[in-house]
């Protein structure tokens, strides 16, 4: 049996349709027509998932949800609503529903939502994330990385803001999720926002949300990321680029835990841990009047500097071996490794793109080489570097020249997308709408490996 589902809904048609759909798929369906029957089944039959009608006869949602959350905290509850509204959804989620699902809803959609909810619940029930895999941010033996790990571990339980400093690709984003997942807020969300290039109003609405009618295009109320991150962590990448108009509002959140949605009079409270990151020199930005001094002091109490790869060459072979192990699994190419000369070549390179670039070089080599043990000649540093430079030469727009073959158009388009993504193959593949492995195959077949 896949699971047991309690369908608490007065609508006989919906119950029957869902039962007919889920039973052949290994689910057991329990039906309740009202709150009394639902309570009884919940107590007796211990379902894995509950579908609960918003206005189930016999008891209001505002009573039932808190009661059920208290008695069965680990059972995901999905609220089905025939009269959906934003207020109803916010209330249901606040009271502990996993999802708020507007009716009508097709059984296949409901089944998918149930499976997601169950999966999320199982993930939450996993043992603490120390055992949960994911890249290890402190690989290596250098004093710089050992010191960083010791400091991070001391700060895990603190609620103070953290500032991650380091060049591009040093792993600031990875470290932010590692910290979140190992800290006391791991069960709540980690919400990420990159402040670079966001216009002030967009940044404000993303962070603080807005009321309906707050500005011309605000046709609906929008929850800000701060509210989504409540009880969890907020990762603000490129915080040095935050618009000066938004900075005092962030400071208020940090100092008083209060903020206001755009267009709202009332203030709200929120409980988040801020993890900020930047590759810029914030002190210089404060001196230049681009970053507020008071905000800088607030977020820089606990600065953590992530070393560049070239500052710790002794760690490179260890990290490379670890990345190749992961790539072996991901690419289905067992036994990936490096010759001694290839390791030495990796250690002798300057890695302006740090871990991201190292991973790109290894992934590219692993996909393109015919043998699993990679040699120096398999490592294409120039391709990675050309892809990283924002000024890397790009081809002219292919659509302007009708004499081009389809292959040439494809070749040029891929080059441009790759260059515009700074050589980041994963992101380029995403923009192109193809799997990363297919992009590598295309690069190979189009002879693009050294000229992105
Ligand atoms: N510890 C690690 N082990 C393996 N790979 C890593 C590790 N840290 C980072 N990476 C790789 O490097 C890439 C860049 O990492 P991340 O985005 O965390 O860096 P960043 O410092 O936040 O970069 P940016 O400043 O450009 O946003 C990741 O996508 C991942 O592939």
The percent range for helix content is: 40-55%
- CATH topology group of the largest domain: Rossmann fold
The largest pleated sheet is described as: 5 strands, parallel
Shape: globular
Q: CATH H-level name of the largest domain... which superfamily?
A: P-loop containing nucleotide triphosphate hydrolases
* Number of individual domains: 3
Number of strands: 16
How many helices? The count is 19
Biggest sheet, spatial arrangement of strands: 2-1-3-4-5
Average pLDDT confidence is: 85
- Structural class, judged by helices and strands? alpha/beta
Q: What is the correct CATH architecture of the largest domain?
A: 3-Layer(aba) Sandwich
How would you classify the quaternary structure? single chain
Amino- and carboxy-terminal Cα gap: 51 Å
- Cα gyration radius (Å): 26 Å
Low-confidence stretches: 126-132, 386-400
Bound molecules: adenosine-5'-triphosphate
CATH level 1 name of the largest domain: Alpha Beta
Domain Sigma-54 factor interaction: 138-367
Protein name: Sigma-54 dependent DNA-binding response regulator
GO molecular function: ATP binding; sequence-specific DNA binding
InterPro entries: AAA+_ATPase, AAA_lid_NorR, CheY-like_superfamily, Homeodomain-like_sf, HTH_Fis, P-loop_NTPase, Sig_transdc_resp-reg_receiver, Sigma_54_int
Question: What does the model show?
Answer:
The protein is of the alpha/beta class. It has three domains: 122 residues, 3-Layer(aba) Sandwich (Rossmann fold); 163 residues, Rossmann fold; 133 residues, Helicase, Ruva Protein, domain 3, CATH 1.10.8. The chain has 19 helices and 16 strands. A five-stranded parallel sheet has the order 2-1-3-4-5, with helices on both faces. The chain has a five-stranded parallel sheet with strand order 7-10-13-6-14. A two-stranded antiparallel ribbon has the order 8-9. A hairpin with an 8-residue loop joins strand 11 and strand 12. About 5% of the residues have low confidence. The structure holds adenosine-5'-triphosphate (ATP). The site of adenosine-5'-triphosphate has 17 residues, from helix 7 and helix 15. Pfam families: AAA_lid_14 (PF25601), HTH_8 (PF02954), Response_reg (PF00072), Sigma54_activat (PF00158). One of its GO terms (molecular function) is ATP binding. Keywords: ATP-binding, DNA-binding, Nucleotide-binding, Transcription, Transcription regulation. This is Sigma-54 dependent DNA-binding response regulator.
């Amino acid at each position: 049996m896949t699971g047991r589902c309690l369908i608490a809904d007065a609508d006989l048609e919906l119950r029957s349709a869902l039962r007919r759909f889920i039973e052949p798929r290994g689910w057991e369906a329990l039906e309740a027509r009202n709150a009394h029957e639902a309570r009884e089944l919940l107590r007796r039959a211990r379902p894995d998932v509950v579908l609960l009608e918003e206005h189930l006869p016999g008891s209001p949602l505002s009573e039932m949800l808190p009661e059920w959350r208290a008695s069965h905290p680990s059972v995901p509850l999905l609220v089905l609503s025939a009269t959906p509204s934003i207020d109803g959804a916010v209330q249901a989620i606040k009271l502990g529903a996993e999802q708020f699902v507007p009716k009508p809803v097709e059984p296949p959609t409901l089944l998918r939502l149930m499976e997601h909810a169950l999966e999320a619940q199982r993930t939450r029930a996993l043992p603490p994330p120390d055992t949960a895999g994911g890249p290890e941010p402190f690989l290596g033996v250098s004093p710089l990385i050992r010191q960083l790990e010791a400091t991070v571990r001391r700060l895990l339980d603190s609620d103070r803001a953290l500032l991650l400093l380091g060049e591009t690709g040093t792993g600031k984003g990875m470290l932010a999720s590692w910290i979140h997942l190992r800290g006391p807020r791991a069960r709540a969300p980690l919400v990420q926002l990159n402040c670079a290039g966001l216009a002030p109003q967009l940044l404000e609405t993303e962070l603080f949300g807005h009321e309906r009618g707050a500005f011309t295009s605000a046709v609906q109320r929008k929850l800000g990321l701060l509210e989504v991150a409540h009880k969890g962590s907020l990762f603000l990448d490129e915080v040095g680029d935050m618009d000066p108009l938004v900075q005092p509002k962030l400071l208020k959140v940090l100092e008083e835990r209060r903020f206001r949605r755009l267009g709202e009079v009332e203030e709200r409270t929120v409980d988040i841990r801020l993890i900020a990151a930047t590759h810029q020199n914030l002190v210089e930005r404060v001196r230049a009047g681009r970053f507020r001094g008071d905000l800088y002091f607030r977020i820089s109490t606990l600065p953590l500097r992530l070393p560049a790869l070239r500052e710790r060459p002794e760690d490179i072979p260890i990290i490379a071996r670890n990345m190749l192990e992961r790539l072996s699994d991901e690419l289905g190419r067992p036994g990936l490794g490096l010759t001694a000369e290839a390791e030495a070549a990796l250690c002798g390179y300057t890695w302006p793109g740090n871990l991201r670039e190292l991973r790109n070089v290894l992934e590219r080599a692993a996909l393109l080489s015919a043998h699993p043990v990679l040699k120096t000649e398999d490592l294409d540093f120039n391709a990675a570097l050309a892809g990283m430079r924002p000024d890397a030469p790009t081809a002219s727009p292919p659509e302007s020249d009708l004499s081009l073959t389809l292959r040439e158009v494809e070749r040029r388009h891929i080059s441009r997308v790759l260059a515009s993504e700074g050589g980041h193959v994963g992101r380029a593949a995403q923009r192109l709408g193809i799997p990363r492995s297919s992009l590598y195959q295309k690069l190979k077949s189009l002879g693009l490996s050294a000229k992105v």
